[in-house]
Amino acid sequence: MRPALLGPGPLILVVGPSGAGKDTLIDGARAHLADRADIRFARRLVTRAPGAGEAHGTLTPDAFAAQRATFALHWDAHGLSYALGPEVVAWLAAGDTVVANGSRATLPAARQRFAMLQIVHVTAPPEVLAQRIAARGRETGGDVAARLARTPPLDAPPQFEIENVGTAAEGSAQLAAFIARTADECRAAART
């Protein structure tokens, strides 16, 4: 028997290639929507040391494996393990809208797990991606090339797309508007 889908609140996964600016846009959208108690921003759990440029929770590989069954969603990429924690399950069950940085490769599994999944695809030209990845200082030249070469396709068209070549404020405002519209539409549908 198939387990019940997580929800009824929507999960908005922000996906795209490394260097597209997903974390920057999510941080900006969080600031735009700070007064919305019905919109939650999930903090990813990662098997990477803290202080690597992303505000994430850190787990050892052993702790990650031990907690895997409690995660709302988990995946492996770039030699690391990533997850959305069990708080996401509770937020969605309460009808809240949850926003998270996700992975294109995990979209088929996410579609099987969540009652309402909305995909935001953030893109940028290859030369911009390379420059941003190199500026993070986490990867060597070969690692930058490997990240750029890894381009898993989307399994279906996204609900929203941002070509992140303008200012961070512009991209964040676009993302915040989409998130607010999605949350409002879901709240309205739940009342009918």
Which secondary structure elements does this structure contain, and how are they paired or packed?
Blueprint (H helix, E strand, L loop, with lengths): L10 E5 L6 H11 L6 E3 L2 E3 L10 E2 L2 H7 L5 E5 L2 E5 L2 H7 L3 E5 L5 H7 L3 E7 L2 H11 L4 H9 L10 E4 L4 H24 L1
Parallel strand pairs: 1-7, 1-8, 2-7, 3-4, 8-9
Antiparallel strand pairs: 3-6, 5-6
Helix pairs in contact: 1-7, 5-6
How does this model look, in words?
The chain is of the alpha/beta class and about 190 residues long. The chain has a domain at about 10-40 and about 95-190: Rossmann fold (3-Layer(aba) Sandwich), CATH 3.40.50. The protein is about 40% helix and about 20% strand. The protein contains seven helices and nine strands, in the order βαβββαββαβαβααβα. A five-stranded parallel beta sheet has the order 2-7-1-8-9, with helices on both faces. It has a four-stranded mixed beta sheet with strand order 4-3-6-5. Strand 5 (about 75) and strand 6 (about 80-85) form a beta hairpin. The longest helix is centred in the last third of the chain and has 24 residues, at about 170-190. The chain is globular and about 55 Å long. Pathway: Metabolic intermediate biosynthesis; 5-phospho-alpha-D-ribose 1-diphosphate biosynthesis; 5-phospho-alpha-D-ribose 1-diphosphate from D-ribose 5-phosphate (route II): step 3/3. Keywords: ATP-binding, Kinase, Nucleotide-binding, Transferase. Catalyzes the phosphorylation of ribose 1,5-bisphosphate to 5-phospho-D-ribosyl alpha-1-diphosphate (PRPP). It comes from Aquabacter spiritensis. Its EC number is 2.7.4.23.
